[in-house]
Amino acid sequence: MALLETWRKLAYETEMNQNQATEFWNSYFVQEKAIYEQILATPDAPVSGTVKELADKFGVEVLMMTGFLDGINDSLKNPNPIETMEEDTAVSLDYDKEKLYYNMVGCKADWLYELPAWDNLLSEEERKALYKKQKLSGTVVKAKKIGRNDPCPCGSGKKYKKCCGKNA
Questions:
Q1: Which tens digit of pLDDT belongs to each residue from 55-64?
Q2: What InterPro entries does the record point to (predicted)?
Q3: What is this structure's pTM?
Q4: Domain segments of the chain: what residues?
C-alpha cells in the first residue's frame, strides 16, 4: 500500500472520538508548523531527499511527513509523485512562495500564513494582495437582474419584455 493511501486512511477514515481526533490533528499541525518554519527560513535552498530522509531531518514519523507532502504538493514548482510515493521515493520541497501563501490562505491555515518568516519572503503588499485574491476567488457574483422595461441585452433596441423576455 502506498504511503499516501496509508496516511489518508489514518487521517480521514480511522474511527476516532472527538478527543482523539483533536489530539491527532493538534499534534500534526504543531509538526507541520515546525517544518514550515524551517523551510521558509531558507527559501533559496530547496530541501530534497527521500521521504524517509526528510522525515528524519524534520524529526517526524514517515506518515506525518507524507501528510505534509500531500498538503504542500499543490504549491510546489514540480509536484511530487505522491500517489505512488514510498519511503525511498525522492521528493523535493521546492515551493512557489506566492502559490504556497495563497493556498495557505485558502485552507484557512492562519497558523501558517501568519508565520514571521513570511516577512522576509513576501512584502506586506504582496501578502495582502494574495490574501484578497484568495478570499475573492470564493465569492459568487450575482448578475444584475434585467428589469422588464430595461433595454434588451441582445442589442435589438427593444424593451426586454417585448424581445428576449417574452417567454421568460
A1: 999 999 999 9
A2: SEC_C_motif
A3: 0.79
A4: 3-137
